[in-house]
Amino acid sequence: MNTQNIPLLRETTPHGNALFPFMLYDISSNSAFEERIGCHWHEEIEFLVITKGEGSVRLNGRIYPVKENDICLIPSNQLHSLNCPEQMPLDFFAIVFHPDFLRSVSRDTIQKKYLEPLLSGSTDAFLLHVGITQPENLTPTGTAWELSLLQCLSQIRQAFLAKEYAYELLIKARLLEAFHLLAVHTVPSHNPVENGSEHPVMLAKSIMAYLRANYDSEITLSQLEKNFHLSGGHICRLFKAMTHMTPFSYLNYYRIQQSMELLEHSGDEISLIATKCGFNNISYYNRTFQKYMHMTPSAFRNMVSQTVSRPPSQTHTPPLTVHLSPEGQQ
């Protein structure tokens, strides 16, 4: 399915498999939408490399401008999203892999001394502007190495897309080379900025998990207040600070995402799909779908049914992006 035409974010989809827990997403994003990657998190580590255009990465509530050739390392379990103004191009590739891909069966010296400080889920994300280094809480010892890191990640991309014999071995070797560059050329700051955002991040994740688990039922602000023992205003302010959307914007996004799966893979009537996904009113469902997807549910179903007969993409790049409007209240 074409990632430019059918934007999906499948957070629950495994990145690779148990034998090769690695995936690369090569994306030319849709300029009709501001949000190019919806706010999400995953256990895997991610290298995000901008190949064209300018935008902004949101990491745990902080916003970082990014441009062509910038590299962002996102450790495990960190909330992140990618935005770009409408009608502006933004292309990128994301290297996503489970920490176990590089770990040893035994906790050897390499793992303890070099990998764990970088693979730890508690590590802060940081950004490299190639040629102009501004990492978060890290002190660079040079700039030429950044070009080597960019070349290393680009070689991983090429190897994955070409899939020549033993490409898996080459990818793992290049990943280890990338972490060697990071270990040698970045030094943890002796006076790191205190990270006081851990509790808000964890709370935002809990709210997201609650919304996802109960998306097919009616959810009200009073229910959120009762469940999280906080005022509705505080919940909305915190959630928006962390995710750049309100709780009900996220709920509607997730409901639309689930309905897209049913539109593509089931023969249910659209009215039944709307009900299954928590919409009690078919007109409201149609309006919400139109707002997020810029097409009606029936048009989407027709499009994906035509796509099924097409040959698969040679780039093997599964859908990644979700495009949302930041308002969208229930």
What layout of secondary structure does this protein have?
Elements: E1 22-28, E2 35-40, E3 45-59, E4 62-67, E5 71-74, E6 80-83, E7 90-97, H1 109-119, E8 126-129, E9 132-133, E10 138-140, H2 144-162, H3 167-185, E11 186-188, H4 198-213, H5 221-228, H6 232-243, H7 247-265, H8 270-276, H9 282-293, H10 297-307
Antiparallel strand pairs: 1-7, 2-6, 3-4, 3-5, 3-6, 3-7, 5-8, 8-9, 10-11
Gyration radius (Cα, Å) is: 21 Å
Integer count of domains: 2
* SSE pattern, N- to C-terminal: EEEEEEEHEEEHHEHHHHHHH
Low-confidence runs (pLDDT<50, min 5 residues)? Answer: 1-10, 131-142, 189-196, 310-330
The residue fraction in helices comes out at 40-55%
Please, how many helices?
10
Task: Please give the CATH class of the largest domain.
Answer: Mainly Beta
Q: Per CATH, which architecture of the largest domain?
A: Sandwich
CATH superfamily of the largest domain: Jelly Rolls
What class, by secondary structure content? Answer: alpha+beta
Largest sheet: 9 strands, antiparallel
Task: Tell me the overall shape.
Answer: globular
Instruction: Output mean pLDDT.
Output: 78
- In angstroms, what separates the terminal alpha carbons? 30 Å
- The total of beta strands comes to 11
Strand content: 15-25%
What is the CATH topology descriptor of the largest domain?
A: Jelly Rolls
Structure, explained:
The protein has 330 residues and is an alpha+beta fold. It folds into two domains: 22-188, Jelly Rolls (Sandwich), CATH 2.60.120; 198-307, Arc Repressor Mutant, subunit A. It has ten helices and eleven strands. The protein has helices at residues 109-119, 144-162, 167-185, 198-213, 221-228, 232-243, 247-265, 270-276, 282-293, 297-307; strands at residues 22-28, 35-40, 45-59, 62-67, 71-74, 80-83, 90-97, 126-129, 132-133, 138-140, 186-188. The strands form two sheets. Strands 1, 2, 3, 4, 5, 6, 7, 8 and 9 form a nine-stranded antiparallel sheet that branches. Strand 3 and strand 4 form a beta hairpin. Helix 4 (198-213) packs across helix 6 (232-243). The longest helix has 19 residues, at 144-162. It starts with 21 loop residues before the first strand and ends in a 23-residue tail after the last helix. The relative contact order is 0.15. Residues 1-10, 131-142, 189-196 and 310-330 have low confidence and may be disordered.
